[in-house]
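Minutes, project check-in

Agenda point 3 was the complex the collaborators sent over. CS summarized: two entities, 1154 residues total, and the question is how they sit relative to each other. Sequences were read into the notes so everyone works from the same version.
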Amino acid sequence: MESISNPLYFFSNLSLNPPSCSNVVRFIDVLEFFFVAHPLSGRKEGEEHKRIMYFHPKSENIERQSEITGFAEATVNFTDNFLSTSRRDVAENLNDNDDGFDFRAVSTQRTEHVYIRTEDNQFMLGVSISKQLSLVSNYPLFQPAIRSILSDAYKMFRMFFGTFSSFIKNGPDDIPKFKERLDFFFSKYIPLLKVHKMPLLDHLGGVEFLRMSGPLYLNVVSLITELREEFPIIEKIMFLYQDKLLYYQLSKRDLPSLFRYLTHNLLPTTLAPELEHSGRNASKGRYLRGPTDLTTDAPLFGDESLSVVHLHSEQDPEFREDLIGYQMMVYRCLNATVCMFVRNDGSNGEMGFRRSSDSSQSSSTRSTPPQNGVVSRRLLRNIDQFLETELAQVASKIGDEIGDEKLADNTDFHYIYFNPSSLSMTSSLSTSPSLSVSASGSTSSSKVSLPPVDVNRLVCDTMSNFVSDTEEFGECFVKSSSDWWIVIKKVNSRLLVLILPPSSYTSSLADVQSKTATIVKSHFEAIFFS
Amino acid sequence: MLELGAQFIPFEPDRSAHDGNITRNFFDTSSQRICTMRNNGALGMTSKSLQNDKIMNVRTKDRGEPSTVKLSPDGRLCAMQRSPNTADIIFLEKTENSLCLELNVSTKSKEPLLAVEWVTNNQLLLVNNHSAELLFINEDKKSSKLIKATNVNAAWAIYYAPSQLLLIANGQSCSNLQPIIVAHSQFTRMKNFEVDFGGSISKENFLEKDAAIATIYGKVYVMVFRYSNRSATMLDLYELPFDATTVPQFKHSLILGFNGGCGIHVIDNLVIIHHQSSQKSLIFDIKVSSPSKSHSPLVTTTIEPHPQHQPPPSLYTNFWFTFLPDVVIDSAGGVMYSLRLKNEKSQLEIPEKHTMLEYLARRKNEKKLFIATLLSCLRARALSLRQIRKVFTRICGGEKELKSAENASENVQKAVMSCEKWNPMIVSQQEMQSAVLIPLREDTSLPESYVANIMLQYLRSLFDASLSPEAYLIEMVVETLAEAGEMSKLQQIVTYRVINDSKPLAFLLLSYEARCSTLFQSGVDILARNKASDEIVEVMLEKKQIVDAFRFIDVRNLNEGLIPKVVEAANQNCYRQTRYAIREHLVEKKAKASLYKSIGDDLYTDAEVQEANTEQATCTLFEL
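CS then shared the predicted structure for the full assembly.
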């Protein structure tokens, strides 16, 4: 029943087993429950269970579900009383960044709960992690990371289907539909979700940029500028090479979710066909989604129509919650991926979604409009012609340069680098699942073993206790009981976490300081990290 | 787009008068001179050229009507063919008022001559059916000597003086061509090749008049008319290699689209075909990209006479003779004209702007016109960014194909042939800035983002050509991007270090902090890469990062002269506790430098000390 036009089509294709001895953990292995609730729907006595929109695990009986969601609601309402107005301002400020939602965390002996409220506090999402299970899985609990995982889940849903409120704005009759949609999404999302054993990575949630020389980068910029000039209908754009980002023109708020979807879900599924067809027309670009036959002018229906994503508008931060539906075109050629977004015109984003969902779920009885969205075969064809040779040229140039630099960087330490203003993040501890075949592999070539769970926990604790979120500068050296050293530097808002394994060269603080200076000099020389 | 007669020279037209006086004119393609013979030279021979004003006037014996008149490159000797088998050398300079001295030469076999050509000032080439012979003419002794001879099998022969190239046709239907280089008193045979001239029963043989040789964009081509009964005539271009081992290749085919008589010119690397009956001229540029080897005319136009000719001469007449490269001879009017291109009209004649600009970029000495046209096209937004980039790439001198073509003859080992080099137009960065980019930026009617994109395209062309952009250009790009509000683009460009680091750039970026906070980071990065530690300290103090400034100074072991400045900043901005920490830090370092002594004590006012004392007295110490 799953249509190819459905954005989640590719979720189902991923293998479920996590790589052995990896640095990720399956989320369901530590998860106790996850829910989406709409408190307003369960106001009447005896009908409390109606507030539950989605609950995982489904096997849980309805009383327990009501209990859990009820507890969450009560906690939120109760603690509301204690929030000073200044605290509330902070919460709203966080909202402005769109990264933080109003949240509550409850820690019990057995579990760690996090609740967030979204969309004018109408909806509540909650998650509970079992302390027992996380111990077994070697997953250090870090509350901010769980919060980020929860909000990421919400944002991912919102990106594909729009806001929660858009589903039920016509009244309670729409609730079954909403539930169906939530079930459709989260039943796939949650089992496939993997979280890092270094929770800081999930918390920071950046994107990985590809390093390359300036002149070559200008080729990418100019190609995209040319493309946008030729096709003004394209409003937003992203350019990736392999699984790394090179260039984007879209709101930073959407960047992590989109990037995650592309690199974790969409692109890995394309790798297999590419390997199969290698040799044959290797430099020919193609669309990853949408129609395969571009020679006709037949309107795009059902399977052939492009998926719609809901993105923030780039220009005016005033309408920060306004999501606009965009049709997504993904064009790929020689490891380079161009992701183009065209406003789904003629209807608002929600209607666009309805249509595509209808066509994907069940054949609608409504008279179908002539075509889903504004993207036509003609447009796809024209873009294909425009990009074909130039993109292949740029991509092969990039390939050459990346290939040149492919000397395994033998690091004897672990690191996390994050720049909040560009969202750029690199780490020796992150993984890009399934793309590792084609990825340059510079991240996995580290000689040192992964840090033990207590070091990971210590990093998180140090971050939350000794490094201020608001300060732009800071420095912190910590030695773990197992003789690992943790160095956290914050310079000009950028964060660098170094995790040094026990060694004879790092016996004293002075040693560690000089070692840090050496690492910064050799690996982060272009960046100001005094 | 074509103008007739900017240069011209009149001559006495052919006539056979009643009084028995005969006037005959000959055009020598090698020396580009027209020779007028009156009564076969007995009444005088005059030779004129468009290139110089020197008119030669001599008298020779009347020994019958010549069929060819050829002047040596220095104009001192003249070869004349008055009988089929021999040629006469006439020594022009030695006689003032009397008749010229003559010397009769022929080939060994005394067979009818096919070609008589001057190779150098004193070497004469004679070609007959079976051999090509090179004679040395001794001007003083008035004698000739055979230098070199080679056996050939020739149906006809043509000679291309610029490359000292002799082209001999032989074989069945004469379509096998044998190029021979006559240089250094040697004959060097190149690879022979077969041409397709559309032979048929009605047209059995390939004729001399259907072939021509010209240098186009630094390569020598043999041009061959190919007739067809079904379709229109084509002009095929065969490229001759520079060495003797490569076979000449069919490279281009020009679609003429008509049948019937026509004239051919090659001016400024353009092939121009004049069609008499339709009174049209077709201009072909083989560099205009074409999916196949066939080219359609770039421009179809009509020749216009130069306004100095009043009344205007009639054009495309039966009396017109055209000679390569650009000579038109009106045999009835008795005028020799040159034809020239009027490139300033190309804007009107070539509708597609990109093609037009590329066309202009390939013309000789049209840089001014090109730059002006480029600017007007950019102002009118007549080009897409991709086209702009291609034009920029061409004029940066970055196109590899051009570079290699330019040096083709030098690269080839054992090059035996030479020809005029073609140098593509190069526009320097200064010229681009002053004549294009700055005017664009100052044009308020254009959106800044458009101008910024143009500059980025230019920057890319420079990089592609491995040229390093000048600092001024980079500054302008950054400023224009900032004016356009393309902060995110600017930031990504700076992050990837598309533009070179420099301190002024760093400060420029720092000044944009208010509009894009990430540019601040980039600015500091650049300062750090430039080892501009003092400036970084200043920036940190500006941002009130006093403690970190101290840390930075410590880590880098910086000049201690900065300390007072930092202390001053600390006094202004820091809490008392922080200042205390700073003071302690300084005291600790005192052992190393006495400089701080005076500074550390200034940190507090008496009131503050008082306040601190009170605070300490009233605070409670919690001990668990």
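Noted in discussion: Chain A has three domains: 22-204, 214-404, 414-523.
Follow-up: revisit at the next meeting once the mutant set is ready.
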